[in-house]
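fyi for ur records
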Amino acid sequence: MRRIAFFGGSFDPPHRGHLAVATAAADRLALDQVLFAPVGRQPLKGKFPATDFVHRYAMIALATQADARFVPSLLDAPYNSDSRREKDTRPNYTVDTLARLRASLAAVSEPTALFTLLGADSWLDIGHWHQSARLLALTDWIVAARPDFSLDSTEAALPPTVKAHSMRDAAEGGLELHHADDTVTRVWFLPRLHEDISATELRAALDRGQVDADLVPAAVRGYIAKTGIYPSSAPPNPLT
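which gave:
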């Protein structure tokens, strides 16, 4: 059985923390693939991210090339408008993306175990996500927890129709999520993983030309320098 994890996010830009989380999850749960899927338009962040999707996808393709388990994905790309006159500004809801992914995997003969990978901050907000109860029933979950992360805070984040129980066979703690339709999904935690890297602070550092080379893969730094997608990273104008 194949084991695949969906890893969504803005990836603006992709950095060491993203790769560390994906590596830990792939190693811990023997994942065959981690699908890095930049989001077209995040429902909970208004106009963010600011960088065009095509650039964020290109950076993901560069950032993931060193590990064969990591796959850049267009699953969460912006919607295409049916009208040539209007830009399609519909948000990308994760519940819709995962439903499409599940349907596509069901059409393949090889059985697949599907996971969703996300950070602790995102997990603690999961109850506010679009159709959160349905969302949590679509896949198993992998949460990159902070050192101060607790199962109590995890359970408190769940929508009221989802009931959590301890997972007995998880070596480092985990939960079973029991849903209203009697299905069960699981949550695994990566408790010792902590990459405290803020994408907002990282972009600000890029704007100042002060980013630490260890934070961003070399191929991504080269792309940023070449394209000038962050203000201070722009190449000099030959006409000035």
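The beta strands are 2-9, 33-38, 70-72, 112-119, 140-144, 163-166, 174-178, 184-189. thats all i got for now
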